[in-house]
Amino acid sequence: MIKKIEHLGIAVKNITDANAVYHKLLGTESYKTEKVESENVLTSFFKVGESKIELLEGTSADSPITKFIEKKGEGIHHVAFEVEDIETEMRRLKDQGFTLLSDKPKQGADNKLICFVHPKSANGVLIELCQEIKK
Ligand code: ZN
User: Fold this and answer.
1) Among 23, 38, 59, 99, which has the minimal tally of Cβ within 10 Å of its Cβ?
2) Dist CA 124 CA 74 (whole Å)
3) DSSP secondary structure code for residue 100 in this structure
């Protein structure tokens, strides 16, 4: 089951500058900054009611975020849906013909298991499934 839009991911060139912009825009400070080594990204999160904004800066030339900005410039990078059970949703979407970018859930930022769905199978939008890791 897909529960809600958990966050929108926004690709930025400089996370310090973008933090200042979104601080002004949302009237709230980033509550967390986290490096995701597996994706070569630096992330920063803002709460917006029930959802969040995730700013992403690439930390290397081969980071997916660096490549995205080279191709398309800064902007919305992905839409993340929170799911009850990520493995069940991955199986369901695979059966429906969606292309998943990994066979197994990966460790994401903000205490989540994540999996991406290829934008080609979702009308040009990169979709992230995420499930909170229960402590
Ligand atoms: Zn995300």
Assistant:
1) 38
2) 16
3) B
Cα of 108 from ligand 1 centre, angstroms: 8
pLDDT band at residue 135, thresholds of 50, 70 and 90?
Answer: confident
DSSP β-ladder status, 127-132 and 75-83: parallel
The separation between the first and the last C-alpha atoms of the chain, rounded to the nearest angstrom, is 21
Specify the residue for token string 């429906």. 96
Q: How far is the CA of 87 from the centre of ligand 1 (A)?
A: 17
What's the gap in Å between 96 CA and the centre of ligand 1?
A: 22
pLDDT digits (tens, 9 = 90+) for 10-38: 999 999 999 999 999 999 999 999 998 88
CA dihedral sign of residues 17, 18, 19, 21:
positive
Measured in residues, the chain has a length of 135
Quick: pLDDT tens for 118-127. 999 999 999 9
CA of 97 to the centre of ligand 1 (A): 22
> Does the pTM of the predicted model rise above 0.90?
yes
